[in-house]
Please model this.
Amino acid sequence: MRIISGTARGTRLKTPKGLVTRPTLDRVREALFSKIGGLLPDASVLDLFAGSGALGIEALSRGAAKATFVEVSKEALAVIRDNLEKTKLKERANVVPSAVDPFLKNERGTFDVIFADPPYLREETGEDWATRLLEKTTLPQRLKEGGVFVLETQADYRMHLPAHWELLDERAYGKTRLWYLVPANR
Model:
């Protein structure tokens, strides 16, 4: 996996070992950033379930002013820090060792772009993380006016959209689907 464009273009990124983290494929990231590229200059970005940090790092490489990476896995946190060092983007990054739920409960800042690539299912309960995220009323409050929430799911995910979200667009790329959402009634 590599950075596609910007100041860190071509830099190869590390990924956490094992199957717990699913890095977003280059062609999916390329499509995503082609769609939201106009939002990135001087943007503040939030990367939830950050994994390798590829989405937030790509945003920084393309001109985002700052990125916050939220990740609970110690191995993934070390990979994110290594990738930020390798790309020389660590000065504009904030790496938060936290689960997403407590982070969203306690965070008061707002962001221009929020990325989330949650685990598809929670093993112990079978709970769907994407649906759980969408139901959180605190998440749309974290978006600045004109901001966008990009949710990555498996391609066959069936979304039930809560009333506090509006769907702008969705696209499938092989086994992956990207959903572009904004807060409703803004």
Remarks:
- The mean pLDDT is 90.
